[in-house]
Amino acid sequence: VFVFVFVHSGKHSKLLGWWGHGHAFSERNRDWRWLDARPLGYHKVVAVVFLSSSRSDSVSVCENTSVSVCEIMCPAASLVVLEDPVDSGQQRLKELGYKQELSRDLSVLANFAFSFSIISVLTGITTLYNTGLDYGGPISMTYGWLIAGFFSLFVAFSMAEICSAYPTSGGLYYWSYRLAGPKWGPFASWITGWYNIVGQWAVTTSIDYSLAVLLQVMILLSTGGFNGGGYMASKYVVIVLHGGILLLHALISSLPIRWLSFFGNLAAFWNACGVFVLMVLVLVMSPKKASIEFVFQYFNIDYSKGIHSKPYIFIIGLLMAQYTLSGYDASAHMTEETKSSDKNGPYGIISAVAISVVVGWAYLLGVTFAVTDISHVLDSNNDAHGYAIAQIFYDAFKTRYDSGTGGIICLGVVAVSLFFCGFCSVTSNSRMAYAFSRDGAMPFSDIWHRVNSWEVPINAVWLSAFIAFMMALTSLGSAVAFQAMVSIATVALYIAYAIPILLRVTLSCKAFKPGPFHLGCFSIFIGWVAVLWVATITVFFSVPVEYPIRIESLNYTPIAVGVVLVLVIGSWLSNARFWFRGPVANVEGHSLA
């Protein structure tokens, strides 16, 4: 409780002083309109307004700890109680059955920054540019990006509408519970939650492992390149780098939310500026440029690995774009820490995808215009050992200045972007693990949903980092095993995205009550397009990627996703159906049933 003492004379009000618990009465002479008690942590304000000019020493204020509002000992004053308006997201969270346990300090910009940084066009394009060149080349990347971006926006709009109605950290699995109804809610919630959290862990694994591999290539180029006797770090060094990166991400994600907000905004700024700077640099520095016909019309089938159907090749080439345009459920998982999350959460989802589509396409065009010899940049015997993006930047500077140092610095910009992407992913993972364990769905749930004095789910942070590290250990056994582990990153996440949308357009078609952000009469149409797109890419990314099919080149995506499905349904039938009832309210007297 905070007490303001004003003097009122004519049309003017002046603040004489204030008083609060832990603060002595302090005289001030300033316009009352500029005073804000919220930075001091007060939410209930008591104002004493005098009807005529008076002196502050005629007022005595005392605290009565037995009542919620302090007594004001002044017969000449009128008492006015002013309440800070309750945050709409916090109020909605309470209506949904949850206490406000995390610090709600993120702005709409910060919420957007987390999703934008996890999408991270620099990360996705850099990691899978080789795949794009292999399968279709410029055409599959240039037009595939726009196709994947267009349909991803349908998914984003549908998710945003549901997020506005249910702004909780649980996100997708909570949505599925509410939309499936009492009979099917627990089962839908169980499947969605596990696909979502396993997909998130796989994404974090792939991001941080990709950063470790990029550092491996940067070290190789810095020490002379593959053809100049450069140092090629072993797979054991790469896994150590991966562990060190995860350690740093866990430490940063353990900081208070105001620091996470700062790093999230910095990550978004770095990604946006990095795309622009690298796009311009690679074009300016490359002595030769590809023709417009090459970028917009050339279809590469030379490296299609035994596949001769152009539509088939094009479909596989979509993976680069769709892998990049994922992870934007982070805005939903950060809603319990976002101001006005019933509005700002949806805005974060949509803006992250829309801006990424535009910015990513520009970066993709800039890099592709610098490619004049596909066979050279894909050759495993080049200086970057076949890492296409690295070879493109390295060649651009080495050809012009007889030194590839500038290209290595450009790769450093990409590496920082990857680092920010991984940090945001760990943070988002931890919020999902916190919410899922809060509802008792995870083993040892009591441990993972605890928050520390900084209102951070600290145990969930370190759990997420540990699991991401354990997943990457499969790379020591075989590259195929590791690929099987991370292949679920795209498909599993999109399955988790599609389940609540499907429930929204079917079981809850008429019962759904939208929040402040809604799609109106277009909601059902957009939802069905989103569901059909996810079903399409699930099939697309499950087909063989090389013929003849061999164990070394087998596409393990359907196997990995199928194994998750078997484990999730098996655990449900054998055990969870007897005790898991879906999200559990922690507000007294509130039931989610």
Q: Which properties best describe this structure?
A:
alpha+beta; 5-stranded mixed beta sheet; 593 residues
Helical content (DSSP H or I, runs of 4+): 55-70%
Determine the strand fraction and express it as a percent band.
Answer: 5-15%
Describe the sheet with the most strands.
Answer: 5 strands, mixed
Strand order of the largest sheet: 3-2-1-4-7
Query: Rounded to an integer, what's the Rg over CA atoms?
Result: 27 Å
Alpha plus pi helix count: 22
The string of secondary-structure elements, in order, is EEEEEEEHHHHHHHHHHHHHHHHHHHHHH
Can you tell me about this structure?
The protein has 593 residues and is of the alpha+beta class. It has 22 helices and seven strands. The protein has a five-stranded mixed β-sheet, with no helix packed on it. A hairpin with a 2-residue loop joins β1 and β2. α15 packs across α17. The longest helix has 51 residues. The radius of gyration is 27 Å and the shape is globular. About 12% of the residues have low confidence.
Give the secondary structure arrangement, pairings included.
Blueprint lengths: L1 E8 L2 E9 L2 E9 L12 E7 L9 E2 L10 E2 L3 E7 L4 H8 L12 H12 L1 H14 L3 H28 L6 H51 L12 H19 L3 H29 L6 H6 L12 H8 L1 H6 L5 H4 L7 H28 L5 H5 L9 H14 L3 H34 L6 H4 L9 H15 L1 H4 L1 H8 L1 H18 L17 H18 L16 H18 L19
Parallel strand pairs: 1-4
Antiparallel strand pairs: 1-2, 2-3, 4-7, 5-6
Helix pairs in contact: 2-7, 2-12, 2-15, 4-9, 4-12, 4-20, 4-21, 5-6, 5-15, 5-17, 5-20, 5-22, 6-15, 6-17, 7-12, 7-15, 14-15, 15-17, 20-21
